[in-house]
Amino acid sequence: MLEQWIIDALATQLQRDSREGLARQLMRLLREHIRSGQLAGDTRLPASRDLARSLGLGRNTVLEAYEQLQAEGYLHSRHGAGTFVSGLFAKPPAPVTRRDQPLGLSGRGQTLFDSVGLPTGLYGAFAPGVPEIPLFPHTCWQGLLARHQRQASSAMLCYTADGGLPQLREALAEYLQLSRGVHCRPEQILITQGTQQAMELAARLLADPGDVAWLEDPGYVGAHAALRGAGLQLVPVPVDDEGLNPAAVTDPRPPRLIYTTPSHQYPLGVVMSLPRRLALLAHAARSGAWILEDDYDSEFRYSSQPLPALQGLAQDERVIYMGTLSKVMYPGLRLGYLVVPDSLIDPFRAANARLYRESSYPVQAALAEFFSGGHFARHVRRMRELYRERQQLLREVLADSPAAGLQLSPGSAGLHLVAYLPAGHDEHALSAAAAREQIWLRPLARHYLGAPQQQGLVLGYAGVNDKAIRHGAAVLARLYALQEP
After folding, report:
1. Considering the entire predicted model, what is its pTM?
2. pLDDT score for 99
3. Of all helices (H) and strands (E), which one includes residue 28?
């Protein structure tokens, strides 16, 4: 592959009508590539016969250039192996990009870049939001995928603008009505490439740059990024034991969007009470705001049935309901969905098709059969029991360790716990020390828009087997004990 790159580069740079001879041009170009580091030491050059044939040159022309560069010390030959760049010419280090250099970003882009970064610790103990991937029914799923890929019609492989495969939207509508109390028809469902895209689409269509968006504080950093990236002014709304609290907002500006996770607040795990839900709906109606309800892990409740969605209580269509399949199946699937009011179906479908294109219909067809064949329901039941057991194990091993002083959040649902730190401990130092041992302890402070009100660590346990839970808990306990005053 590298030899072909060398041939292609030389072919575009040789000038047949130049007064400079072809052999001299070849020498000069190779010499420049070596000096610049594009051809590093010990790089094998194409054989003279191959290079001559590819460039339309006489072999003697290539040999003349190679021999001269060998005489100058740029090349050397190995008997039976070929011609190589001299080891004296190492590839120069990549230039370091300084953060104080202008990046050419827009003001909105710079704000987004300054406030978010690439996530670390995406898998393993205790990466939050990761399901149990090894126990997913891969054989069944791969069989469905392969069959629907083989049988896909030309229309399914082309651009589409239907809002998603009709069969999948029908399966989701039935599922959401029965399990979540969502009021919807298949036509109201829009298949997206995950919750992030769903939020960005809603923000683009329902708000203008500079509009105000309320977000739970602490809350989901992905929502921070999506709404900040849309140019909105973010207002943190405190979360208490009943969920997001509109009465605690002191900013007088009315919100255009209100983002909330009422069924299992992320990351604190509280459930929004019925009085608070009704109050939030009333506030949205008065202010003309749209509520973005993110129902990210409602399938995994351990002490009761899944709670009805906020959307099911709305009477005036002020709620945009969002869900994802990444937590139930696997993150790489990149499929989510929106449920929008009737009045928004056409603009949402058109904007989604134009801005993002719709995701693979053969994959959606396989997913529709995954639902209709009962595989989805069986997998959810199996994982619900597994995650309940893993959460209990995490609680037990921490309770029997030097980290027994950690106060853990309620555990009636979800894929993570929050471990609150007492005074005298440093969540950032704990996280950094654990990361050096490949254990991921996300500081709670990362989830605050405003000043952090409490210290803690977000501990994901769903995608962590028993051995890794015990090891990770032991690392956490040891590091926690080292910080004891």
Report:
1. 0.79
2. 54
3. helix 22-36
